[in-house]
Recover the amino acids of this structure.
């Protein structure tokens, strides 16, 4: 599965954030701040992955001055994907648990 | 989380150290070139100010060494460049590991909660 | 350019190696005698300049030493002219040895830069490896 397809699969399993979601800096308290941070991470995911892809290609075509930029971008994208995936898995587990209790 | 001042500052440091490494390579390649003046890359002060302001981004500035020249007009000092080269390499390794550590920490946190 | 510092040091290696070649050629020919009708062996000196549009150092040209050389009285030499003179190159061994040391030092310094740059790039490649 390509990296973009993996993104789509994870992103589609999460509720789409409201249009007025603020930038992912933790300024509020409790639930609101975490929701905002997570929604920001989902938005960022596509951008981070495309940046990482772009830098990787630049590195092999000789157009990239600093190899560490490509390594950092790849790590950023990978960690953000892991975060979003972990939260989705938790959400699915919780949902399954609730359904079992109601049965 | 991933855009903290720390990671931004480490990233800026890596950019600047990489430029410094190129400047040192240029100086050593031109160690016997007449009228060549050694290049110097500075960024530490600008980065410290940027971090204190809560930002973390800082650009490196490239200047010329003002050390006295030899007869052929060249002022590259091989000892200075050699020490700076080793210093830059070690700092770059450190910053690389520190950035990696930041990502590992987040990954560890993700794993232990699942 | 990815891994730039290595390329820059590479230009330094090339230039210093050419200098070493020129100096060793000069030293090898320090006793090359010719008849007074010909030009003496001319010492070769490599001219260098810093890169204009890209960093590094490049060969700008070659300078040749004087063709007159030194006239030495050697009547037994088969190349000697009617007055017994032979032409030797105008090369000072001490000067050439000093250049040899500079060229060698410069070459080694650039080789060390390649090594350290490679070290740095390898540590950057470790970022994010341990998933």
């Amino acid at each position: 599965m390509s990296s973009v397809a993996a993104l789509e699969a994870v992103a589609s399993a999460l509720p789409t954030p409201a249009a007025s979601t603020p930038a992912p800096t933790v300024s509020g308290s409790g639930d609101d701040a975490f929701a905002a941070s997570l929604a920001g991470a989902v938005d960022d995911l596509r951008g981070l992955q495309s940046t990482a892809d772009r830098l990787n290609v630049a590195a092999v075509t000789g157009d990239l001055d600093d190899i560490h930029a490509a390594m950092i971008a790849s790590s950023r994208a990978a960690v953000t994907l892991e975060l979003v995936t972990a939260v989705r898995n938790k959400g699915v587990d919780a949902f399954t648990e609730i359904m079992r209790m109601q049965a | 989380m991933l855009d903290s001042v720390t990671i931004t500052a480490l990233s800026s440091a890596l950019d600047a150290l990489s430029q410094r490494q190129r400047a040192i390579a240029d100086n050593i390649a031109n160690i016997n070139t007449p009228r060549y003046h050694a290049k110097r890359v500075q960024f530490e002060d600008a980065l410290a100010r940027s971090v204190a302001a809560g930002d973390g981004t800082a650009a490196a500035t490239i200047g010329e060494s003002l050390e006295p020249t030899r007869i052929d007009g060249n002022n590259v000092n091989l000892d200075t460049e050699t020490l700076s080269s080793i210093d830059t390499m070690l700092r770059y390794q450190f910053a690389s590991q520190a950035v990696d550590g930041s990502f590992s920490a987040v990954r560890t946190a993700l794993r232990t909660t699942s | 350019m990815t891994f730039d510092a290595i390329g820059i040091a590479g230009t330094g290696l090339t230039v210093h190696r050419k200098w070493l070649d020129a100096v060793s050629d000069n030293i090898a020919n320090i006793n090359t005698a010719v008849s007074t009708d010909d030009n003496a062996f001319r010492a070769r000196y490599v001219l260098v300049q810093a890169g204009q549009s890209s960093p590094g150092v490049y060969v700008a040209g070659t300078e040749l030493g004087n063709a007159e050389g030194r006239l030495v009285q050697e009547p037994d030499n088969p190349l000697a002219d009617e007055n017994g003179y032979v032409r030797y190159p105008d090369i000072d061994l001490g000067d050439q040895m000093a250049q040899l040391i500079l060229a060698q030092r410069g070459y080694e310094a650039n080789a060390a830069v390649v090594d350290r740059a490679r070290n740095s790039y390898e540590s950057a490649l470790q970022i994010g490896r341990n998933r």
Remarks:
- The interface with chain A takes residues 1-4, 121, 124-125, 127-128, 131 of chain C (CB under 8 Å).
- The longest helix of chain C spans residues 93-125.
- Chain C has one domain: 4-125.
- The two ends of chain C are 28 Å apart (CA to CA).
